[in-house]
Amino acid sequence: MLESELIKSKLNLVDKARARGAGDHISLPQLVVCGDQSAGKSSVLEGITGIPFPRKAGLCTRFATEIVLRHSPGKQAITATIIPHSSRDEVTATRLRNYQKNLLGYDELPDVIETVGALMGLKGFTDQKDSPPFALDVLRIEVIGETGLHLTIVDLPGLISGAESDDSSVVEGLVNSYLENSRTIILAVIPAINDVETQPIIRAARQFDTEGVRTIGIITKTDLINDGTEGRIAAVIRNQGPIKLKLGYYLLKNPSQKEIEAGMASIERKRKRKELEWFQNPGWKNQHLNSNRVGIDALKSSLEVLLARHIERELPKVCSEISKLLEGAQNEINELGEERTSIQSQRLFLSRLSMEFCSLIQAATGGTYHGRFSEFFNRETESIFTNRIRARVHHLNNEFADFMCSKAHKYDLERHGNDDDDDDDDDDDDDDDGDDDDDDDDYDDDEDDYDDEDENDNEDDDDNDDDVAFPREWGHPEANTRGLELNGTYGYMLLMELFHTQSSRWSGIASGHINRIHDLICIFVEQSLAYTVKEEQVRNELWLYMRASLQKNLAAAVNELQTICEDEKMPPITYNHYYTDNIDKASQEGMKDAFRKAIDAANTDLNSEAVSQKKQSKAYRRLLEEALEKKVIVNMDRRACEEAKIALNAYYKVKSILMAVIERHLISKLPAIFPPTSVLKMSDQDVARIAGEPADRADRRNELLNMIQILTESLNDLQS
Asked: Does residue 441 lie in a domain region?
């Protein structure tokens, strides 16, 4: 009695889990009866369960039927329910799940099958012509009463032999879905008139149970074989045939057609006696078969123990797998995030994303690379921390500043006068845009070749008009800008034209720099979005939203740059004291250079003259005076040009494109491209477009939530 209750308890645990739908998500221990449509499967099932399944011409099983037998004293209770397959939509699944029929007797089974077939929408049970012939749902029949055993067994539709059709493929797929379950014990029903090795059900079983460790062979229709062939069947029962099974074979005699037509009571009373008499015939008696392998009673008692031990062995594994499934499902739920079915939940979702995004942006623009975003900022590409935007902007600004100081001018005045090359750079006029920002030479839009002075200039020829302080490409700006100035002086127009020419490339170079910073920021924003927003659809919509703000910031920076460049076209004005400092320094450097060259010249001449020691002092003084006189610029226009050149260099050094343009419009406005306040101002349509959950994502969340509920309840049942 104690063992019987233990078996009942274990079976109930698994049955509860299966009834909840856990079998759709995890393999549960079970017995399944399967075979060809003409193998005598129904008679075997009736013999095991005592339930008379309807036999109707042209009618075959269209869905799996789970039969639950629980022995209990008292009045018999029969209940029919439906376990919907996981592939059903929620509406259909609910309708099927809500079906429950309490039967007064087995004679109501035909009506139950008709009703269930219609609910499942199967061909032959509904008026719809395109209805499927088979269903993956399960009819569950629970019998509590004087059943004599505790057992749960599943009856599968019979395989269709000898025909290649859609129906046969569907049935084969349905049967295989049970056989491939590693926790399924296969009860393969095989008619004795056929060779075991040729039976489709055996081939299917061997496909999934290659070692034959979970397959039981049930030989039926022994009354149809020819006399004298009993030995062939007996060899199979002894597991000596071509197909050997670890769980062995059982030998049955199904009721005859007359016995079936006589009704269930007649079968119950006579089946055991008829079977015993049949196998006492000389043809079978002489085979000396093990009585534990012959007859329906032997099969029933062994199945009860077999299933109980199978469950006991597999139950810990089932619990472990359910726990892993629950963990995986919960992780996936967490990745999906909270449900967003209403505008309020969607707006709240965007607000949280905005706060996270702004925190990351503020840390980046503030150069705070440690803390909760350190993993993001520590990502490297070719030894460069690409996500450290403040550091990257500093680096590009320094490159820009160096380029502006060394290469942004139109002409290199320091090189003027070094050689006699007359190679004009035909591309000078094309360099003004300076917008090449593709590589390390982003600011260098083809360096100019410059025209230099003739090495053989006669320094004593003060009237040489070509001996001026500017490249010949400029012509004679001192003459073209002449006003009322006295000889040897220059007006502001000369300095203005010179400065405008030298700074003509600034606009293009500065535009290129702004575009480089903008491109860098766009890449950074995309990386930040990828880090903070896990959903691709939301990320793409937010990028479109933010890109509009980034383009607006770029336009503002370009407009301010244009304003600054327009200001540079005005007459030169500066109140920067460095301007006069630079002029003084340049004049002093010029004087030092003149003295140095004069001294060198005097020393050279002195060494070449043979003079006495007494005359060396006077000679050195005379030679020094002569050398200095050569450095004096007598030509007044050339003198004005030299002084204008000094002033130009001094003024050029104190003017620059303001870095504030980048900081003010491109950097400081970054947190404002998606602030929390912007979410509050969004229309409901924009919120739904950006944060609305795709249908497939919502469906997946519902599937996971349903699975978590089923598995959690099932695990609680199995561990109770």
From this structure: no
